[in-house]
Amino acid sequence: MIKSGDRVYPYYNMGQKGRVVRVQRSNVTANAVGGTLAAEFLAEILLDDGQTVVVHRVQDLMREE
Asked: Which end of the chain has fewer CB atoms surrounding its CB within 10 Å, N or C?
């Protein structure tokens, strides 16, 4: 599980490396045939430039080793 303080990057944009500032839970508003979907987790990431904050789904992130 990704947590605050981890260095991460998104799978689909590996140049956006940074540090997780906050992880928050977000409700999903879509409905499926069997019922509602589970909540997802979003991470706010402070990029290495020190000014830009972006938000990505936790499932799209990879921890930097």
From this structure: C
2: exposed, middle or buried (Cβ count in 10 Å: 0-12, 13-18, 19+): middle
Tokens coding 1:
């599980």
- Domain ranges across the chain: 7-63
For the chain, 65 residues long, give each residue's pLDDT as a single digit of tens.
Answer: 899 999 999 999 988 999 999 999 988 877 778 777 788 999 999 999 999 999 999 999 999 88
